[in-house]
Amino acid sequence: MEKDIKKFIDSEIVKEIFGNSNNTKEYLISLGFDKKIINKLKAQELYNKVVSEWNYENSLKKIREIFKSTKKYSEGKNSSESIEILIKEWHNLDLGEISWPFSQGQFDNFVQSLNSEKSTRTQKDEKVRVSAVKYRRIKEINTTRNDFLETLIFEKNKNIIPTLGHSRGVDFFINGISYDQKVAKSPTIQFKKNYGSNWKQIAIDKPDKVAEYLYTYQDEGRFGSSPRLYIVYLDEEIKPLNIQKAIDNIDLSNPLEINFTFSHKDIGDKTYKTQAYVILLCK
Fold first, then answer.
1. Where are the chain's structural domains?
2. If we measure between CA atoms, which residue out of 134, 143, 231 comes closest to residue 186?
């Protein structure tokens, strides 16, 4: 569900923004409240206090200042060099093209397929070892790239309030509206199939279509129709310069209007209207 903290806020939204009582205390103290009094308040009392004192414009500045003092922000600022090092190490290990050896949660299927091959057990063991290393390293590369991306997004638009903790369903408030950040390894298999060999250029030309497919073909167990900020990989070997270009090219003040139809198992097809931003990462 879309949340607009310019118009409404409650204690649950406060918890999503601040993540814990320590961040909430820091915020209230920055407003000028007595530190001794604030430190005596219980978590729910702190959240209620923020609600009663909420002013969007003032909070925007204060929360952004708090975020800039976090380890997450400082690491994101320094991620550019780390990405280059990780990519160089990948190639030094002669791991080939940067690509996923198997999908998340599909290791068992990968091993079963490997066991059916006509090769020696030693050869199969070596393939598992290499694939496991590739999987771990690509996860590390993507985590570092995502930290870099989040920092660039934060700095791109001065009207962004990031959540200070890890809140499921909300990562940013852009111009007051809540957005859930989702990272996709592609615009979906269906997108590639429907648009054939030209799928990548279609994705670049029509980011709204990318969002439509990602909403339409999402896993029902994690279904959501709330506003999202999609980070979509069109290629895997994405260097910091390419990431910077992707952020430079997106307008984080005008979201895309998305209409999609989702096939629910219990109620059948249902049409939704939402909004999204799409950041496409390509070489």
1. 1-69, 80-138, 157-283
2. 231
